[in-house]
Design a protein that fits this description.
The protein is α/β, with parallel strands linked by helices. The protein has two domains: 141 residues, HAD superfamily/HAD-like (Rossmann fold); 99 residues, HAD superfamily/HAD-like (Rossmann fold, 3-Layer(aba) Sandwich). The chain has ten helices and 15 strands. It has a six-stranded parallel sheet, sandwiched between helices. Strands 7-6-8-9-12 form a five-stranded parallel sheet, with helices on both faces. 49% of the residues are buried.
């Protein structure tokens, strides 16, 4: 499929909500592939490992391999160097990416960098430890700056909320890696090549990523953005659709 048009799909709010598939999304991905499009998944959710992302995709009927998944944890790992000591405030996906980079995850003592992602075990103590390491001189990397992420129960705090807490406690602003920032764009260029269509549910993340990639942006209303907000966006998305199924049919009919 080297000459195929490539679509990059966000996961949360586009394909699923907390692992529960959005109606019509798995079938839409099948149609995309049947119509000759290459599909990759580009997510700011740094908590799951790549294998967990792949397993969840397969569990909802979407064929996927590890090379099809790009995460903000992987983008953040590019910002640390092999052999460095890294304090991780984040889920297993961040640990996997950092260790895969050849770094040592170290939660006590001096470290070279602190990487903060979404962490459902976030506590006062883990906040304090990360902020102390940053104040002591460690570089501060955030996997992404999304303040929330969508679930069937509504919006929950995202990695950006946790990075903001560390920034406030340490007095140091992070450098972000995931969508829409340059490290994720570089990761996509290396792993995927040209991306023609970016489908997402947040203009400040997926829309700006589309701009960075030179791709068309299809905004779906199945995640964090509603129709009223979508109508006010500047620049406007190339397409606004109720969900992935509608976007696929509009752009590949």
């Amino acid at each position: 499929m080297s000459g195929a048009e490539t679509w990059a799909l966000d996961l949360d709010g586009v394909v699923w909500l907390a692992g529960h598939p959005i109606a019509g999304a798995p079938e839409a991905i099948v149609r995309l592939r049947e119509r000759g499009r290459r599909v990759v998944f580009m997510t700011n959710n740094s908590s799951p490992t790549v294998a967990q992302h792949v397993a969840t995709l397969r569990a909802v009927g979407i064929d996927a391999e590890a090379d099809d998944v790009l995460t903000s944890a992987q983008a953040a790992a590019v910002m640390v160097q092999p052999g460095e000591r890294v304090h991780v405030l984040g889920g297993p996906g961040v640990v996997e990416a950092v260790e895969g980079r050849g770094c040592r995850v170290q939660m006590t003592g001096p470290v070279d960098a602190v990487v903060v992602g979404i962490d459902k075990a976030f506590t006062y103590a883990t906040l304090g430890a990360a902020a102390s390491a940053v104040r002591a001189g460690a570089r501060f990397v955030g996997t992404n700056d999304d303040p929330t992420y969508p679930t069937p129960e509504g919006l929950l705090p995202g990695a950006g909320t946790m990075a903001a807490a560390v920034a406030t406690a340490s007095g140091v602003a992070p450098t972000f890696a995931g969508k829409p920032f340059a490290p994720m764009a570089a990761l996509a260029a290396e792993r995927v090549g040209r991306i023609d269509v970016m489908v997402g549910d947040r203009s400040t993340t997926d829309g700006l990523m589309a701009v960075e990639l030179g791709a068309r942006f299809a905004l779906v209303l199945s995640g964090v953005t509603d129709a009223r907000l979508a109508a006010t966006l500047d620049p406007a998305p190339h397409l606004v659709s109720a969900d992935l199924a509608a976007a696929v049919d509009a752009l590949t009919a």
